[in-house]
Amino acid sequence: MTPIVYYILSAVLSALVLAGLAMESRVKLAVKGNLICVGVMGLAIILTLFSADTDLKTALLNPFLWGSIAVGGVAGVLWARKVKMIEMPQTVALLNGIGGLASALVGGLELAKAESSVFGAVTAALALVIGAVTFSGSLIAALKLSRKIDSRPKKFKGQGAVSALLLAAALAGIVLAGFGLRIPALLLTVVSATVFGVIFALRVGGADMPVAISLLNSFSGVAGAIAGMAIANVLLVAVGGIVGSSGLLLTQIMCRAMNRNLMDILLGKTVKVDKPAEKPAEEPAAETPSKTVEEEKAEAEAAPEKPEETAEETQAEEAPYALKDAKDVIIVPGYGMALSQAQQKVKELADKLEANGAKVRYAIHPVAGRMPGHMNVLLAEADVDYDVLFQLDEINDDFAKCDAVVVIGASDVMNPAAREAEGTPIYGMPILNVDAAPHVFVCNYDLKPGYAGVENPLYKRTNGIRLLLGDAKESLQTLIDEL
Amino acid sequence: MEILTHPVWGPVILIGVFVVASVLGYIIIRKVPSLLHTPLMSGMNALSGVTVLGALIAGVAAYKTQSVVVLIIALVAAALAMVNVAGGFFVTHKMLRMFDKKGGNDKKEEEKE
User: Fold this and answer.
1) Which of A135, A230, A295, B51 would bridge with A123, disulfide CB 3.0–4.6 Å?
2) Do B12 and B42 belong together in one domain?
C-alpha cells in the first residue's frame, strides 16, 4: 500500500470518528453514531495490519495477531453482555483502566526498543506514564465505585508533596528516556506513574468520582495518541487526540454542572476534613467513616431482599397529605433508585398519577447516581419518555410551584446543606430545590447521609414531609396502593 | 510512511495531527445533552482502545524479528485493548438502545432473555 493511500484512508477514518461522536451527542442519532465508531475501529485494525506488513500474506495469515484480537474482542463482549445497568460506572472505569494498561504496554515496548529516535523514546515514556496513571487510577476508581474499598477521599500528611515528588520522578524518567537511558527510564516511569494514579484516585471521593472517571477516560485517549506519536502512526494520534479532547470537554461540562473547579478536584480540595475542629457537629459522618460505609454496603445488599423491614414514619402532625390530591408532581430519582432497581415502580407510580389527572415530571440532577446521565439511562430502561425528564436549571424554579415531590433514593442532590455548610464536599454544588416544595415524599432506605457523607437537614423538617423508609420498591408500592 | 520517521518532520506532523484532532474533538461534542453523558463517555472510552493499533504494529514488527517476549507483550496489549474496544462499544450500544424506543423494543426483549 502506498503511503498516500494510507494517509487518505486514515483521514477518512478520523473524519468518520468525528462524525460518529457528533452523532452520539444527539439522542436520535446516537445508536447509529456508535455503530459508525464500531465500523471505524474494525477498518482501522484491518488498515493497520495491512500497512504495517508489506507482505499481504503474512498480514492475512498472522495467527497470533488475529488470535489476540479475537480473544480480546470475545472476552469484552461476553463481559459487557453480563453487565447490569447499575454496574455501568465501575464497568466503564474498569474498561478504561484496561485500555490504559494496553497503552502503557505499547509505550513500554517502544521505550525498550533500542533503535527508536529521541522523539520516539520521549513520547514512548510519556505514553507509559499516562497509560500507567490511567490504569491504576481507573482501577482504584472502579474499586471505590463498586464499594470494594472505602469510597471516601483518603488523605494523608504530605500527600501533596508525595504527589509532586512522584510527578517529578515520572518527568525525570521521561528525560532519562530522551538521553537514551531506556531501562532506568522504564522502571522509574512505571513505578512513579502507577503509584501516582493510586494516590490520585484515592484522594477523589464522594460526588467527584464521576468527574474523575471522565478525566481518566480523557487520559486514556491522550495515552493512545502519545503512543501513536511514539510509533509514528497518524491514525492512532488522530483518534486518540479526538477522544482526549472531547473527554476533557465532557469533564468540564460535568464540573460546570456541579459548580466545581477541575483543579480543585485534582488537588483534592474537595473535602476540607483537615479542619474538622470548626464544625464537628455538622459532620458526624466524618468521625465514623468505616461504619457508614459498612452500613451503606449492607444497604446495597439488603435493599432488594428485605422488604419486610419497610418502616413507615409519618411525621406530619395533621392528616397526611395524600398524593392523590396532587396535580403537579415532580419525581427526583437518585442512586437509591438504581440500587433497588425501582425504576419500573417509579414508572408505574407516574402512570397512576397521570391516570389521576396529574402532571408528572422528573428532575434529573446532573450528578444524580454515580455517573452523569445515570438516571436517564435507568429511566429509559423503564420506558420513561425523555420529554418529561428535566435538567436542574429547567425545573428548579418549579419546585416551589408544584404540589408534591417524590424523592426516590436521593440525598446529596437535594441536600440544602450544599448552600450553607461550608467545608463539606457538596458545598457550593447546585442542588434541586426540593425543600421549596410544599409536600415531599421521601422513599429512601434510611436517613443516613448520601455518598458525599453530609447529613441532610431536609429530613428534620417537621411538616409537609413524609418519610417512607426501606426498600424503594416497597415504599413506591405503598404510594401506588394509596392512589 | 518514511516522512513520519524523519527526525524533524515526523514529530512536527504527528504533533500537528494531534492538535488538529484535539481541536475538532473539542468542538464536536459541545452541545451534548446531559441525558447522553454516560453513553457518550462510554463510547469515547471504547474508542480509546484504539491503542490496539499500536499493539498490532509492535506485534507485526516482533513477529518479523522473531522476538518472542516482545511479541507476547504486544499480543497481551492487543487483547487488552480489544477488551476495552469490544466491551466499551457493547455497553454503549446497550445503553443507547434504551433511548431508541421506536424499533428497538423487539431487540430489547431478546436481550432480557
Assistant:
1) A230
2) no
Rounded CA Rg of chain B: 19
Q: Which of residues 328-387 of A touch B (CB under 8 A)?
A: 364, 366, 371-374, 376-377, 380-381, 383, 386
Domain count, chain A: 2
Whether residue B73 is found in the same domain as residue B101 = yes
Contact check, Cβ <8 Å, A236/B54: yes
Q: Which amino acid is at B58?
A: A
Cβ-nearest to B43 among A34, A85, A230: A34
Only one residue has cell 500474506, namely A57
| Euclidean distance between CA atoms A221 and A349, whole angstroms | 42
Write out the residue range of the structural domain in which residue B1 sits: 1-31
Tens of pLDDT, residues A208-266: 777 888 899 999 899 999 998 888 888 999 999 999 998 888 888 877 766 677 777 76
Residues B23 and B55 in one domain: no
Residue ranges making up the domain that contains A461: 297-482
Q: Establish whether A412 is a catalytic residue.
A: yes
Chain A nearest-CA residue for B40: A24
Of B2, B14, B23, the CB nearest to A229: B14
Contacts of A89 (CB under 8 A, 6+ apart): A145, A209, A210, A213, A369, A370, A371, A374
Q: According to the model, what pLDDT value does residue B77 have?
A: 94
Q: What are phi and psi of A331, to 5 degrees?
A: -105, 130
Q: What is the ipTM for the molecules in this complex?
A: 0.85
Q: Note whether A217 contacts B: Cβ–Cβ < 8 A.
A: yes
Residues A126 and A211 in one domain: yes
A286 has pLDDT over 60: no
